UniProtKB/TrEMBL annotation, chains A, B:
Entry keywords, A to Z: ATP-binding, Ligase, Nucleotide-binding, Purine biosynthesis
Signal peptide range in chain numbering: none
Family the UniProt entry places it in: Belongs to the PurK/PurT family.
Subunit annotation: Homodimer.
GO molecular function, one term: ATP binding
Cellular component GO terms, alphabetical: cytosol
Protein's recorded name: N5-carboxyaminoimidazole ribonucleotide synthase
Pfam family name, one: ATP-grasp
Top-rank taxon, per record: Bacteria
Amino acid sequence: MAKDFYGDLKLGILGGGQLGRMMIQEAINFNVNIHVLDPDKNAPCRLLCNKFECGSLSDFDTVYNFGKDLDLITIEIEKVNVDALEKLEQEGVQVFPQSRVIRLIQDKGMQKQFFKQNDIPTSAFQLISSKDNLQNTSIAYPFIQKLRKDGYDGKGVKRLNSPLDIPEAFAEPSIVEELVDFEKEIAVIVARNDKGDVKTFPMVEMEFNPVVNLVEFLISPSTYSEEIQQKAEEIAKKIACDLQIVGLLAVEMFLTKSGDILVNELAPRPHNSGHQTIEGNAVSQFAQHLRAIFNLPLGDTSTRQHAVMINLLGEDGFEGLAKYEGVEEILSIDGVYVHLYGKKYTKPFRKMGHICIINENRELAITNARKVQEIIKVKA
Amino acid sequence: MAKDFYGDLKLGILGGGQLGRMMIQEAINFNVNIHVLDPDKNAPCRLLCNKFECGSLSDFDTVYNFGKDLDLITIEIEKVNVDALEKLEQEGVQVFPQSRVIRLIQDKGMQKQFFKQNDIPTSAFQLISSKDNLQNTSIAYPFIQKLRKDGYDGKGVKRLNSPLDIPEAFAEPSIVEELVDFEKEIAVIVARNDKGDVKTFPMVEMEFNPVVNLVEFLISPSTYSEEIQQKAEEIAKKIACDLQIVGLLAVEMFLTKSGDILVNELAPRPHNSGHQTIEGNAVSQFAQHLRAIFNLPLGDTSTRQHAVMINLLGEDGFEGLAKYEGVEEILSIDGVYVHLYGKKYTKPFRKMGHICIINENRELAITNARKVQEIIKVKA
């Protein structure tokens, strides 16, 4: 970076949630001035930055005015006004990831087309502009319908089992995707800086709980064969290079029962599937993101110990001022690290924090994670 | 802790320097509300807390008023108004470390008497109230004279070689100490919570540079025999128990050429000799301090890898707005972690940050530390 930046550089973060919060914990080491924009006046970052601005991330003027005196802008959520970012880029503000990358990733249809154009393996799909299109898709039932924009954490996704489900389908622009009969959901986080250096974190696995039908644990590193891991990491690197992204890119993938890898979705920022890097890897995803956007040498991503990450979700049936139960008890287990996100209010399944469980032994890490999961609760 | 504290608890930190800053980086994970008092309006913590108050740490009213609405107060510097803390304790505010511990440690004479009363090995000494006392001390020349109060980082310490040096001696209340012909300076950090649980970090060594006559590196863990390490750790534990301190205690010691250990000084807080725990140990000294003062189970202190810590000092001959040279270059070495302290202005030998160098191989960690030391500079 041309600018002498330790101490002077003004870094703006669009979004003031937990990802921004953990980014700030790391950015403190770099002496940068941090400005945060978030619509929630109680956002987790509100008290940890040089300037916190409460405002809409999707409003052109708000984003433009927030950014115009900054040196560098990054995001912790991709639902932001990209036109404002594009104008800021034209006026000389650095925006990493670049506005064109955010624009592409905001739209799941464009993501899919990008995969196709770049020979990146992904499930068969079709773009849908209205419910009428659903009558004659090329994709066989059952299939998945996803809204092209604004879906997250399972929202904006439906399974259609037969034409009888069409009345319940989304009417907005969407994609339909072949249902993948996967063996495992996997993810690779990759970083790229402006010099073009690219580095991946080791592949991780999501452990699914069939009873509650949810991803329960994230486990790092994977125990799949070296070949599969390498293939997943190569795909992530290729995407980062094809996009020429600057910053972090989380690549969520399916490992199919036949051993193929299909890319599911991208997130151009630190990601839930990389939280365990804080304790489990030589550098964390947050440190790596900062190194990438500051155009510094990328850090060592190697795994130090087995890590299991659990999201700490608001307990079902509780809404209001958050109360945490069991923190003291889980901290008596060695290798348990608690990260609370500073959210004042809980609601069912809201991400209130995460717990990372580290151990030299993979099975012991998983056993401890199960214990932790039974003990800790967020109520109101 | 009786109070349901995640989110509600108001934690006050007396002092807003780098130790407070690193404590906050860790405290973010616990959701506590942080209030900081520091006389410098540009203090490193100023932008990282719920409330920053600029004021004197040694003024009774300032400290009392700062603390009276808080739940828990801790320190990152021991030069604070202890009378105010004592009154706050009487009124029900928790103060950890306790005011009586801070009062004792503030006075090097009382520290020495405490060692003597509790059979803690330390060098021979004598309390001195005026220069006249120096004429007939029981300690043989050459000896060390230390001010009883307010010395730090080598300030307030003089070597007297013969009675001819008396005119240059300190006139204030002081101690004279036998000069210890030590083999190595060592340190152990110990934590104790209010339940009485006690845990030490592994013993560390200071590597002295005879050319510049300064401690150059801190190396963790030590390579001395198990017996010596255990002895040092037992001494640290005994002191924590004798003091009944709640919080962290850094115990600086001399290992003599005959293999004895003599306690030099105490610091009742996170300490420069524990910075390498951030990357080098399972929990950091900052996390451990918070666990101790929150009365949570103490964390696993075991060493993960060899660590060398270098203080990043303001270059001699430069004063003014700090400029950092070489950060990019040292970050290209794997296992190098930079911590800048957010200080706007540099001056010769001011602590501006620290670098931690981690490696599986001790010699390689030291080699890399030497490289880092040659490259990085803080100028103006």
